[in-house]
């Protein structure tokens, strides 16, 4: 019999929902990380799922490290021998990079490729700005100013277009010349990457996606190995990340997504709240579990938050509550300036 420890009813349901599509809506302070850790342990201990068959995608490196540490400690406390290094735990980018490294010969990349950070990417474009300036109609897209400012604009365009899986060919075929110019910009940028055996941060996911879509044997191999997928902060995933999850899940559909539609704040980087709002439509029969008991705040804080957030038009709906008592009343303070605000806090 699995030991659920101090898990509440909602957490127990989420931990033991091992098969099929699962949507866990978890408000702040409701023990989301604890639930993910215990669900991983449940799959290994109770369902006999091999560690290397579990895929957990998080939003930040910090969150990934915390998950790894807590899972390792929990396995040790329960006396379960398992090699956590075999599990697929990390950010989407780190997991995609792992898949690419394991199948590099099937990609456009050659050995000793170089991975660009944000500065490297902009500097690369800066060095080749003449190639972008020579594109017909490109002045519509590029801002007035020097080469460095224009290089930043190019990077912004290509990163956003890549995250949405837009191809240069689709853009270049558009009747709108400004759109066609963006397509030529994207093609020129990707040509530069290919010539230099380079890969930027956003193209890590693109390369992994094309690797899986264009090599059925590799996709089948990963699908047979990875039987259970979990995605943290699902409200902050973008289009390509959603598509990668669907690809890996295949017909088995053992996808567990965890998120809070009231905390979607990364629209500027392509995240779309529709991913979590539409999950049940894409996967009929989804088990939807709400984690509403808050362990972090007092009832006065939660009541204030509930009153504010209930006016959002697009949300799945939940009401956070706590046993932590009323606490201090929520007060409004109007600061005269930033220094005054900092001093008051």
Index terms:
345 residues, alpha/beta, six-stranded parallel β-sheet, 48% helix, 9% strand, globular
Major beta-sheet overview: 6 strands, parallel
Q: Major sheet: order of its strands?
A: 3-2-6-7-1-8
Q: What is the strand content?
A: 5-15%
Estimate percent helicity.
40-55%
Low-confidence stretches: none
Decide which structural class fits the backbone: alpha/beta
Report the radius of gyration as a whole number of Å.
23 Å
User: Order of SSEs, N→C?
Assistant: HEHEHEHEHHHHHEHHEHEHHEHH
Fold and architecture overview:
Strand 2, helix 3 and strand 3 (88-91) form a beta-alpha-beta unit. Helices cover 48% and strands 9% of the residues. Helix 5 crosses helix 7. A six-stranded parallel β-sheet has the order 3-2-6-7-1-8, with helices on both faces. The chain has 16 helices and eight strands. The chain is globular and about 65 Å long. It is α/β, with parallel strands linked by helices and 345 residues long.
Task: Briefly summarize what is shown.
The chain is α/β, with parallel strands linked by helices. 48% of the residues lie in helices and 9% in strands.
SSE blueprint:
Elements: H1 9-16, E1 22-26, H2 32-45, E2 54-58, H3 61-77, E3 88-91, H4 92-102, E4 114-115, H5 118-127, H6 129-133, H7 147-163, H8 168-172, H9 177-196, E5 198-199, H10 203-214, H11 216-225, E6 228-231, H12 239-249, E7 255-259, H13 274-277, H14 279-282, E8 287-291, H15 299-309, H16 338-344
Parallel strand pairs: 1-7, 1-8, 2-3, 2-6, 4-5, 6-7
Helix pairs in contact: 1-2, 2-3, 4-10, 5-7, 7-9, 10-12
